[in-house]
Amino acid sequence: MSVTVRVPAKVNVQLAVGAARPDGFHDLANVFLAVGLYDEVTVTPAEELRVTCEGPDAGQVPLDHTNLAARAAVALARRRGIEPAVHIHIAKDIPVAGGMAGGSADGAGALLACDALWATGAPRAELLAVCAELGSDVPFSLVGGAALGVGRGERLTALETGGGFHWVFAMAERGLSTPAVFREFDRLAEGRRIPEPVASRELLQALAAGDAEALAAAVSNDLQPAALSLFPELADTLEAGRAGGALTALVSGSGPTTAFLARDAESAEKVAQTLRASGTCRTVRTATGPVPGATVLP
Ligand SMILES: C[C@](O)(CO)[C@H](O)COP(=O)(O)OP(=O)(O)OC[C@H]1O[C@@H](n2ccc(N)nc2=O)[C@H](O)[C@@H]1O
Ligand SMILES: Nc1ncnc2c1ncn2[C@@H]1O[C@H](COP(=O)(O)OP(=O)(O)OP(=O)(O)O)[C@@H](O)[C@H]1O
């Protein structure tokens, strides 16, 4: 018997970053949107814990106990007094080290899959607590939709959205390390006073109204200068997407995936074609969001 869970990627439509905290993390006002690019995590009873992965980026995914999916299985098993004897298989479509919470998706997916396989009956709040231990983005991968994350991004409030948005994503030739991007943010911020991160009212209104033009005018990412500083070529990708008619162009989270908001499906296809022809990125994908979070497949 196996359980398969499908988990979406995310884009951050607002990422306001505060000053570094004593624990090294940064307080955030992080507005997440789950988008329809998915990893699928399948768990099957096995002799011992084992991870396998397939997909274009599979070679970059660690298959040992550091894999977030393995850590999720171990964390749940420990709490529940169960042996984490499962084979975890990840069918990976979310770019690795791309700023779209791919590893976090696998963590949330494995957690939900093991929870179903072992029929733990753990309350949702317990699953969310395990997610928060695994990483700042993991709780959102579980809940999906649209949400505001505060603290280090793990304390979530669900947000209303008035409809779906059309996105184009350009995957880069190489990845960026999230800690390195936050360190670069700190370096660029040296000597400046960093304001408290707060969610933008215009942005929340645009999401609630399902108004793509208003959302485009309100998106922001405080990590974007740091990502561009470490990966200057991303500026060319952003420009190519704008030239293709995107309403706005931004770096997704810590990057280096770049995200383009389009007016409608037709315009998204045009942006995607322009990006593909530009030679400024590795692959281009279209996706809509919000979509639901981690879901057990029948
Ligand atoms: C950039 C984002 O993807 C935006 O959603 C997240 O903030 C990162 O979330 P994540 O990859 O789940 O990050 P974690 O695994 O919790 O932390 C990785 C590293 O990122 C940095 N980090 C992360 C979250 C945060 N609020 N402040 C930080 O400074 C820390 O150096 C930390 O050691
Ligand atoms: N299941 C996993 N899938 C991908 N990477 C993983 C996984 N587990 C651990 N990792 C490690 O985590 C690193 C970051 O990968 P990930 O794809 O999660 O980055 P990301 O999408 O930029 O994260 P985020 O958007 O949450 O900051 C990888 O380079 C890899 O070493």
UniProtKB/TrEMBL annotation:
Instruction: Tell me the pathway.
Output: Isoprenoid biosynthesis; isopentenyl diphosphate biosynthesis via DXP pathway; isopentenyl diphosphate from 1-deoxy-D-xylulose 5-phosphate: step 3/6
Residue ranges crossing the lipid bilayer per the database entry? none
Any one of the GO BP annotations: isopentenyl diphosphate biosynthetic process, methylerythritol 4-phosphate pathway
Enzyme Commission no? 2.7.1.148
Q: Which domain of life is it from?
A: Bacteria
Q: Which reaction does it catalyse?
A: 4-CDP-2-C-methyl-D-erythritol + ATP = 4-CDP-2-C-methyl-D-erythritol 2-phosphate + ADP + H(+)
EC class, as a word, reads transferase
Tell me where in this chain the GHMP kinase N-terminal domain is found.
67-145
Q: Which residues form a coiled coil?
A: none
State if Kinase is listed as a keyword.
Answer: yes
Q: Which residues form the GHMP kinase C-terminal domain?
A: 204-279
Give the Pfam families listed for this entry.
GHMP_kinases_C (PF08544), GHMP_kinases_N (PF00288)
The active site is formed by: 10, 137
A GO term for molecular function: ATP binding
- Which terms are listed as keywords in the entry? ATP-binding, Isoprene biosynthesis, Kinase, Nucleotide-binding, Transferase
Residue positions annotated to bind ATP are 95-105
Q: Which family does it belong to?
A: Belongs to the GHMP kinase family. IspE subfamily.
Described by its record, this protein's role is as follows: Catalyzes the phosphorylation of the position 2 hydroxy group of 4-diphosphocytidyl-2C-methyl-D-erythritol.
Q: Which NCBIfam families match?
A: ispE, PRK03188.1
The name this protein goes by in its record: 4-diphosphocytidyl-2-C-methyl-D-erythritol kinase
Q: Which organism is it from?
A: Streptomyces lucensis JCM 4490
